[in-house]
Design goal:
alpha+beta, five-stranded antiparallel sheet, four-stranded mixed sheet, about 160 residues, about 25% helix, Immunoglobulin-like, single chain, 2 helices
């Protein structure tokens, strides 16, 4: 029978070899996926920034969502604060969905805790022609180098 220390050492080496082999296989499988985005032929995200104005004034708070019209590319979303937004988007033609939020009252931060602090309750108020993914009228063409000033002028009665 081998001394205890030697047996433990041999077992440890066996585990390292098995785990090492597993990691090597996983790395070999993952490398093509990771490297497929590298090089000049892969699509790259570009910066898009701008202003969203509602009836001539900056939209105080909201979101802007750039969507591929055919659903073949990921969406990009940004928060709108005081009319300004900035995000990373894949180039191409996009549907644009803008939602605006306004404070309509107060509510508890947690409905389960009646002692939780009061916070602003907000509701989306823009019409579907701006705020609905299925009926938005807004579009944008994002160039391969991005758009430094992509502004939207919204009008509601």
């Amino acid at each position: 029978m081998a001394p205890y220390g030697l047996y433990k050492w041999d077992k440890r080496i066996g585990e390292i070899n098995i785990y090492g082999l597993c990691w090597l296989v996983l790395a070999g499988l993952a490398a093509p996926v990771v490297l497929s985005g590298c090089g000049s032929s892969g699509l790259r995200m570009v910066s898009v920034a701008g202003q969203v104005r509602l009836n001539g004034k900056p939209l105080e708070e909201g979101t802007i969502d750039f969507q591929d019209p055919h659903g073949n590319a990921p969406n990009a979303q940004a928060v709108i604060r005081q009319g300004a937004y900035n995000c990373q988007v894949l180039p191409g033609r996009k549907k644009v969905v803008i939602q605006g939020f306004k404070v309509v009252g107060k509510e508890r931060a947690s409905r389960a805790d009646p002692d939780s602090p009061l916070v602003d309750r907000k509701e989306q108020f823009l019409p579907p022609k701006y705020s609905s993914p299925t009926s938005t009228e807004l579009t944008a063409d994002i160039g391969p180098s991005g758009n430094r000033s992509l502004n939207f002028e919204l009008k509601i009665p």
